[in-house]
Design brief:
Layout (H helix, E strand, L loop, with lengths): L2 H10 L8 E2 L1 H8 L3 E4 L4 E4 L3 H11 L2 E3 L2 E4 L6 H13 L3
Antiparallel strand pairs: 1-2, 2-3, 3-5, 4-5
Length: 93
């Protein structure tokens, strides 16, 4: 599932994901990712493999599932982050 598809699925599920912007050209060349979409509420980045995603996430303390890494803004509450994360993880089950 691509970052864009995750953002679209979240929006369909009623989660606010305002102002989506594809930042692949700015983020991926130096980080080895395939695609990166940032919104006002999260960033979703895909990698060529789950292992590559895990390395990237682990080094930065971010959340990872499958080949995706998700980052939330520091101002978002843990409860909100957990709600988004639960919805994202359920997309892969």
């Amino acid at each position: 599932m691509s970052p864009r598809a995750v953002v679209q699925a979240l929006a369909r599920g009623g989660f606010p994901v305002p102002n989506p912007l594809d930042v692949t050209a700015q983020i991926c060349p130096s980080n080895g990712c395939d695609q990166s979409i940032i919104t006002d509420t999260l960033r979703v980045t895909s990698f060529p493999s789950p292992e590559a995603a895990n390395r990237y996430a682990h080094q930065r303390g971010l959340r990872q599932t499958a080949n995706l890494v998700v980052a939330f803004p520091p101002v978002m509450s843990t409860t909100e982050q957990d709600e988004y994360w639960s919805a994202i993880v359920s997309m892969f089950q």
